[in-house]
Amino acid sequence: MAAATAAAAATAQPEGVEPTPQQPPAVAITPANPSIPPWYFEGGMRRVKPYHYTYNTYCKERWRNKTIFEIYGTEFRDRPQEYYKNAVLTGMISINGVPTHSLDQIIRNGDIVTHTLHRHEPPVTDKPVTIVCETDDMIVINKPAGMPVHPAGRYHYNSVVEIMRFERGGWNPMPCNRLDRLTSGLMFIAKTKEASKSMMLQLQTRTIKKEYVAMVKGEFPEGDVVVEQPILAISPKLGLNRVKANGKHAKTLFRRRSYNPTKDYSVVQCLPFTGRTHQIRVHLQFLGHPIANDPIYCNRKVFGPNLGIGGEGDDEDIITRLSRMGKEEVAEAVAYHDELVADYEKRKAERMSGETCSICDTPLYTDPGAHELGIYLHAKKYNCVEGKWSYETPLPDWALPKEGDVVSEVLVLESVDIPLVLKEGNAGSGEEVKTSLDGNNTGNGKEEESEGVEVEVEKEVVAPKEITPQELEMLQIGGESDEEEDTQKGGEKDIVEDK
């Protein structure tokens, strides 16, 4: 740090002149010996003992000319404001290697902000990252739910990349596709840059088809349900997306696998045409059948009693309610199933324990319950449209047939051989077809809930049980790819990860 301080002093800029970007100070991270595993396993969890870590971040455009405390007090929400106030005053936060000690110090273009902290990683499931297939240049894995792909936010060692890096002796894993932390399923990890480029090109050129499976609230309609509604990130900071007319085009085909009338949930197959962030989750919510344990899109405290069906709800109100959610909040959805109700009070996800860390005085949290470690969404199958390869995982436990399930007549919706009614020349006709949530064509341009309440909708909601050959050929990539995100949002990101 002394070297960094001297360098900063030597390259000081005259007042009023924007400084040139500096080299970041050396990153201090413990444990530092990569040969020693940082994990231990206890209570069904993969855990990491707290360690010191230094974040180095270039000044972002939105930070310019703001005070250091203003940035940390509003930008990062994984710790209380009082923590950041103390971190500034005690010199744990530096600018260009020089401790600030002032809450009012201004951040300018080119500055490097350094924050050394005692890092407490949340535990993740102890389920292994299983190998579906391995070739000379690619590994296909089945990612466990609740485990982020990349180090981000509060997660570093408890990520797919770091786990595989250690297990393979320092090898550099190169993920080709992304899944939400809460989502499980197939991922491609390249061994070489060439293999990574090849796979990413296939993903970008839509020559790969994906199939997901989800468990949703309520009785999903029989038959094929096609949702074609644009999706917009209404709050990138909170990771919140909604159906909006000015959003990006998004289209998903759904088909019910089974329905359990006793517990009132359905297991649904999902084939996305496009690849928008949270696409499947948002489209299912729009239909009135959100994923049953989705902490965001199936949360009445955020979206109200109707859970945002048909895009219902004011964006600003929803953002405000979501931003107020702390770690003491838990999605009401986890109590929908009878077998979970008895444990509801014991599973307040990662609630404050009332204790603080003896080293950094950070409030400590209890462990998350099993149902806060993932959502009922799984990337089940990928296949190349040219027929060169196809990979598939077993169904997760929650998607397996249960006693009392009513199984749909057409159970499997297989990649290309989708048993749909083909209609030539339908694509792009501009003909709007409105279908009620029970699958019956209303023809009136409105969507009806089961209670008979009509809800105005934007554009086409669902199409009838038919799809064009052109669209059938384009059933591809799509789905839940997005930047890995911490559930609490607002975590810091290291300068190395920003590249």
UniProtKB/TrEMBL annotation:
Active site positions:
D180
Q: Name one Pfam family in it.
A: PseudoU_synth_2
What are the Low complexity biased-composition ranges? Answer: 1-12
**One annotated GO biological process:** enzyme-directed rRNA pseudouridine synthesis
This protein's source sits in the domain of life called: Eukaryota
Locate the Pseudouridine synthase RsuA/RluA-like domain: which residues?
A: 137-285
Please state the Enzyme Commission number of this protein.
5.4.99.-
Q: What class of enzyme is it?
A: isomerase
Bias category Basic and acidic residues: which stretches? Answer: 487-499
Q: Which GO terms describe its molecular function?
A: pseudouridine synthase activity; RNA binding
Q: Which UniProt keywords apply?
A: Isomerase
Member of which family?
Answer: Belongs to the pseudouridine synthase RluA family.
The function of this protein is:
Responsible for synthesis of pseudouridine from uracil.
**NCBIfam families in UniProt:** rluA_subfam (TIGR00005)
- By what name is this protein known? Pseudouridine synthase
Upper lineage is: Eukaryota, Fungi, Dikarya, Ascomycota, Pezizomycotina
